[in-house]
Specification:
By secondary structure, this protein is an all-alpha fold. It folds into two domains: 11-46; 61-259, MetI-like (MetI-like fold, Orthogonal Bundle). It contains 13 helices and two strands. It has helices at residues 2-35, 49-52, 60-97, 103-111, 118-136, 143-150, 152-166, 168-177, 182-193, 195-211, 214-218, 224-232, 236-261; strands spanning 38-39, 42-46. The longest helix is centred in the first third of the chain and has 38 residues, at 60-97. The chain crosses the membrane at residues 12-37, 73-93, 105-129, 135-156, 198-219, 239-258. One of its GO terms (cellular component) is plasma membrane. Belongs to the binding-protein-dependent transport system permease family. It comes from Microbacterium testaceum (strain StLB037).
Length: 270
């Protein structure tokens, strides 16, 4: 009798903790949502005027900087995700399959940005970006090189955890024993099994890029967060609307990536 009772108490405790956590997350979001309907100077009045202002042609110039910053941030997201996919993923796979003795070194390098404050990193990025601006210009997308360093710990962990659970060395040897080359082995055997870890790394990368303010501010680049900071000084209601929209976007992206990560293609029977 004690084991079923203990299991029931454990489930009840877990439910209570999850419920309290959900309430702790939901209350600030509900308060922010309610704030977007408030009328300035009339706390009890509600209006949709702040939402209507977003599509008002007369307000186009007012919100032009915010939309431009959002476009820049989405471009930075694309470049940073490309860096993760084209640089970090091949590096981790190469170390795991060919140079396992270097695993600790790569892990140390990838986790190192967590130990250094972002402000300190920016001080080091300033002279580097003088060279970057000379080579690639001063467009906002060049921030992807700096943010790519910031996201290393967040992108590395899910990929490495997926690799550790998968044992890619055994998979690679099995594929090669059946006559597959190195490239087909990686593309057709290993990467499909790393889909969940790679998608999680991409999600965390997008979330970090959309929330990054310090680097863009110090390097004088227009991004979503810097534009939002300027807008909230003149129109806090629209700034709150875009903050909620960004949270909703990341949440939907999380659901999509979760669905893609659990997707299994159906096998056709002959």
């Amino acid at each position: 009798m004690s084991r079923p009772v203990g299991a029931a108490l454990g489930r009840t405790g877990a439910t209570i903790v999850l419920a309290l956590t959900g309430v702790a997350f939901a209350l600030p979001l509900l308060a922010l949502l309610l704030f977007t309907f408030r009328v300035s100077g009339s706390p009890n009045a509600l209006t949709l005027a702040h939402y209507a202002a977003l599509v008002d042609p007369a307000q186009e110039y007012t919100y032009d900087g915010l939309f431009r910053g959002l476009t820049n941030s989405l471009g930075i997201c694309a470049v940073t995700v490309a860096i993760v996919l084209l640089v970090l993923v091949p590096t981790v796979l190469l170390v795991e399959m060919r140079y396992p003795a270097m695993r600790r070194v790569v892990e140390f390098v990838c986790l190192l940005p967590l130990t250094v404050p972002t402000v300190v990193l920016v001080v080091g990025f300033v002279p580097v970006y003088k060279v970057v601006s000379g080579a690639f210009g001063s467009a906002a997308w060049t921030l992807a090189f700096a943010i790519g360093v910031i996201v290393l710990p967040y992108a590395y962990r899910p990929i490495q955890a997926n690799i550790a659970a998968l044992d890619v060395v055994v998979l690679g040897e099995a594929a090669r024993s059946l006559g597959a080359g190195v490239v087909p082995t990686v593309l057709r055997v290993i990467l499909p099994n790393l889909r969940r870890g790679i998608l999680s790394a991409c999600l965390l990368t997008v979330a970090v890029v959309l929330g990054e303010f310090t680097i863009a501010s110090f390097l004088s680049r227009s991004t979503f967060q810097t534009a939002l900071f300027l807008l909230q000084q003149s129109d806090p209601y629209v700034a709150a609307i875009f903050s909620l929209a960004a949270l909703a976007f990341v949440f939907v992206l999380l659901l999509v990536i979760g669905r893609l990560g659990s997707f299994r293609p159906s096998r056709r029977t002959p």
